[in-house]
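Issue 218. Parser rejects a valid record. Input:
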Amino acid sequence: MAVPAGTPALGVEQEPAKVMGREVKKMSSSHMKLNAKMLLFFLSRWRASYEDRLSEWLAAEAVVRQRDREQAAEAAANAAR
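Output the parser choked on:
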């Protein structure tokens, strides 16, 4: 397979200012820290939301299982008569 002209060879490092042919702005360390804090905040909010939703589903699943057990016991009692 032919490699197009101008394509860097594998293992060749590109300038950090250009990635995939696009200009990349460098961020200050304070900006990166702010981005990291925001990411951690959103991840913690997402996790809390996920855990709340999961507990709701587990509670609903417990109700359904209990209902299924009761129906199975009732069906077995009716079959025994």
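Fixed in the parser; the record now loads. Residues 18-80 form one domain.
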